[in-house]
Amino acid sequence: MRIDLLRHGDTGRDGYLDGRTDPPLSQTGSQQFATQTKYRDWKLIVSSPLVRARSAAEKHSRRMATPLQIDPDWRELDFGRWDGRERREIATEPGDAALLEAFYADPAAFTAPEGESWTSLQHRVGRALDRLTANPELSPVLVVTHGGAIRAALSLVLGWPLRSLWSLRIKPATRITLEIGRGEDGALWGELVEIIQP
């Protein structure tokens, strides 16, 4: 089935670890979303419950009369004590600087203080993908989500190690199209079709 993973648009908080912290889209972010969805049609829209993803998904769903599902499994990684803080500020604190560096160098092995592990994120994104691939007749699907959830999906579907995914820039409003299915053995497979940056 064809799935478009669309990161929410700009919130004006570049450089911040906004996981559960939930700023609204900026005007630029709303325009980015409109550009990435213009002239495209989906049978289903799935969205994270966080307002920076959900608000634009709801408007697009109403405008296009496309069914919308809000799925909490597509929400962003919870950064714990770092959530809502600027990476640059965290990197100046002696206790957190080394941990932040390790978090990006090997996300599978390191978790933000009191935050959610990448393993947990992958598990819930895997559940969300299972639900979608169980209904291939819904293809194509638009999933409006977040950078972390998109990286988790790419790791699961394409087999990319998490530590390699930082080399892929997923700016706000990036749209990544995947063809996803299951083999006879039930294993998930995927192909990268296109990446459209805003």
Task: Give a quick summary of the entry.
The chain is α/β, with parallel strands linked by helices. It is 35% helix and 18% strand. The protein has helices at residues 27-37, 51-64, 87-90, 94-105, 118-133, 147-158, and strands at 2-7, 44-47, 68-70, 141-145, 175-182, 188-196.
Secondary structure layout:
Layout: E1 2-7, H1 27-37, E2 44-47, H2 51-64, E3 68-70, H3 87-90, H4 94-105, H5 118-133, E4 141-145, H6 147-158, E5 175-182, E6 188-196
Parallel strand pairs: 1-4, 2-3, 2-4
Antiparallel strand pairs: 1-5, 5-6
Given the helix and strand composition, which structural class is it? alpha/beta
Major β-sheet strand ordering: 3-2-4-1-5-6
Radius of gyration: 16 Å
Order of helical and strand elements: EHEHEHHHEHEE
Low-confidence stretches: none
Shape: globular
What is the oligomer described by this structure? single chain
Could you give the distance between the termini?
24 Å
* The CATH homologous superfamily: Phosphoglycerate mutase-like
Number of domain units = 1
Report the top-level CATH class. Alpha Beta
> Approximately how much helix is present in the residues?
25-40%
Strand coverage percent: 15-25%
Mean pLDDT comes to 95
Annotation, overall tally of beta strands: 6
Question: Would you tell me which CATH topology applies?
Answer: Rossmann fold
The biggest beta sheet is recorded as: 6 strands, mixed
Total DSSP helices: 6
The CATH architecture name reads: 3-Layer(aba) Sandwich
